[in-house]
Design brief:
By secondary structure, the protein is mainly α. It has two domains: 81 residues; 90 residues, no CATH class. Helices cover 70% and strands 0% of the residues. The protein contains seven helices and no strands.
């Protein structure tokens, strides 16, 4: 073979490889197109769902604001009607109606998560009433638990001041409903 014929073969092989590469590229690129379309359809569906969820969140926030305003109005009305120093009076009949059992005033065991031993820990810190418990922070509650040793670390006192406040204010139905929602495995 001479130089000119080898150059021709070089160009023929190069052209043949280029054509095959083009055909393969076309088919590989074409197979990606449905996947890209599926992804864009999925993205559109997710954007629509996100918009619906944002709308639901706005509605929930508005309802919460309305409920908060109504609750504050009710509490202000109750406070204005009460003239004695102790604004909230313990009413055992209302408590029994909500819980279906007799409730003792300032019984810390009423709070979901507090048992007799934890109640004793709080009493040793001079926290003996619902009002006392309502006025401390969750961090202070954790400090009380830590004083009892390692076995009390599993308890989560984050909601205890809030529950104590509901009990102190006589919000028995709300407290009962909250405890039913957040029951910690007790049946």
């Amino acid at each position: 073979m001479d130089w000119e014929s080898s150059t021709i073969w070089y160009w023929v092989i190069l052209a043949f490889v280029g054509i095959i590469a083009g055909i393969l590229g076309y088919f590989f690129g074409k197979s990606d197109t449905p996947r890209k379309m599926d992804q864009s359809l999925e993205l559109n569906a997710l954007e629509i769902e996100n918009a619906k969820l944002k709308s639901d969140l706005d509605i929930c926030r508005k309802r919460l604001d309305d409920h908060t305003i109504k609750t504050k109005e009710i509490h202000l009305k109750d406070i204005k009607q009460t003239t004695n120093k102790n604004i909230f009076q313990f009413n055992p009949a209302e408590a029994k109606a909500a819980f279906g059992k007799t409730i003792k005033e300032n019984d810390l065991k009423l709070i979901e998560g507090i048992g007799p031993k934890i109640e004793g820990l709080f009493h040793s810190f001079d926290i003996k009433t619902w009002k006392d418990l309502a006025e401390i922070s969750a961090d202070k509650c954790q400090e009380v638990l830590d004083s009892g040793g390692k076995r009390y670390r599993i308890h989560d006192p984050a909601s205890w001041p809030m529950q104590a406040k509901m009990a102190y204010e006589g919000l028995w139905e709300e407290l009962f409903e909250w405890q039913e929602k957040h029951r910690a495995g007790k049946y």
